[in-house]
Amino acid sequence: MESPLYPIYTSFREVNQTIKRILRTNAEAMGLSHVQFTILRLLSNCPGTNVTELAERMQQTNSSVSVAIEQLVGMGLVNRIRSKEDRRNVKLNLTDRGTEKVRLSMNEDSHLYKQLVRILEVPPQEIQNMLDTHQKILDRLNAKEE
């Protein structure tokens, strides 16, 4: 007999894989890897973030994020700003070219936008119910065992 957990797990996996495929396709069309594109999106939303913070948000290692950052700096999409108070602390920001790349990736004519906006065809109350349910699931999964 199949576990009642299997359809839940399968649904989450399928949605996750589909969104990753859409994001990867979009990143490749822009000449970027999925990791590089994710870094640009995160820096767009949180300028001044450092490598460790990015790695935590992306659930990646510092070294893999550092490699991608180095490539993005080489492409002229990201710059590093060293703290005057603590030279070890390096903040990352998008350059104008990086900002433009992110903007173009999410404008209404982009393939990514056209794919993801379809989510909004689901009625708002259903989306809110789904978000509430996801939060309940996350709370339970992250709860400490007693």
Automatic annotation (TrEMBL):
InterPro entries: HTH_MarR-typ (IPR000835), Tscrpt_reg_MarR-type_CS (IPR023187), WH-like_DNA-bd_sf (IPR036388), WH_DNA-bd_sf (IPR036390)
GO molecular function: DNA binding; DNA-binding transcription factor activity
Location of the HTH marR-type domain: 5-139
Signal sequence, start to end: none
Keywords, ordered alphabetically: DNA-binding, Transcription, Transcription regulation
Protein name as it appears in the record: MarR family transcriptional regulator
Originating species: Paenibacillus chitinolyticus
Lineage: Bacteria, Bacillati, Bacillota, Bacilli, Bacillales
